[in-house]
Amino acid sequence: MAILGILKRLVNAEAAGRERRVDERVRTTLGARVLVVDDSATIRAVLGKMLAQDGYEVMKAADGESAVDMAQSQVPDLIFLDIVLPGMSGFSVLRALRREDRTRTTPIIMMSGNQQATEQFYVQRFGADSFVRKPFGRVDVFHAIRALVHAGRMPARAVPLPRLAEIPKGISPEEWAAIPDIAMPDDQQAPAGEGLDRDAASSEASAGRAHGGSGN
């Protein structure tokens, strides 16, 4: 009986391994347009490379105002949106995009290096689909995309995964190869909580006015 139990566990482990490998190959449509919004040139470069290598078309914005304009004019299939941005915060961008018909249902994954536990609560409350905490690697990025595919928010890819991505114009092969595999926040990023608390407080006040100031 002990031997049968061991064999059963081995078979189950092998099946689980095959299922994980199949799941790891789940991607959304080849050539899907992804907008990366972050004031860090490092994050834009690293995340942009990850996505390009996986067969996606990447667009980039360094601030909230540019992100809203780009999203409305080019209508991306997916948006990676930083929370702490100069000027217009990520939460304000999120609300602006959700008010517009063209981007009302666009999948949005929020990003931040902020360590406050309330972040994910506010991300979900304001209408984002997911959250990725900095620093992050390829596994984190593509796990978030797979989750959107499994949830039916994005279509699944029906063609094989390309092995190599073309190097974007304006970047030399040496510069492309030098981009790291982990997206680390820049040292100049705003301190933890800055921007988040201010925007959350403003949103709480707006919510109170919308409900007649009941305080509930």
Tell me which CATH architecture applies here: 3-Layer(aba) Sandwich
Our estimate of the beta-strand percent is: 5-15%
Radius of gyration: 20 Å
N→C terminal distance: 60 Å
In CATH, the homologous superfamily goes by the name Response regulator
Roughly how much helix do the residues carry, as a percent range?
Answer: 40-55%
Number of strands: 5
CATH class: Alpha Beta
Mean pLDDT: 77
- Largest sheet geometry: 5 strands, parallel
Shape: globular
Number of domains: 1
> Uncertain runs with pLDDT below 50, 5 residues or more?
10-22, 188-216
Could you describe the 3D structure shown?
It is a single chain. With 216 residues, the protein is of the alpha/beta class. It has helices at 2-24, 41-53, 64-74, 90-99, 119-125, 138-150, 173-178, 196-210; strands spanning 33-37, 57-61, 78-82, 108-112, 130-133. It has one domain (27-207): Rossmann fold, CATH 3.40.50.2300. A 5-stranded parallel beta sheet has the order 2-1-3-4-5, sandwiched between helices. Strand 3, helix 4 (90-99) and strand 4 form a beta-alpha-beta unit. Helix 3 packs parallel to helix 4 (90-99).
Please render the helix and strand layout as text:
Blueprint: H1 2-24, E1 33-37, H2 41-53, E2 57-61, H3 64-74, E3 78-82, H4 90-99, E4 108-112, H5 119-125, E5 130-133, H6 138-150, H7 173-178, H8 196-210
Parallel strand pairs: 1-2, 1-3, 3-4, 4-5
Helix pairs in contact: 3-4
Keyword list:
single chain, about 220 residues, 5-stranded parallel beta sheet, alpha/beta, Rossmann fold, disordered C terminus
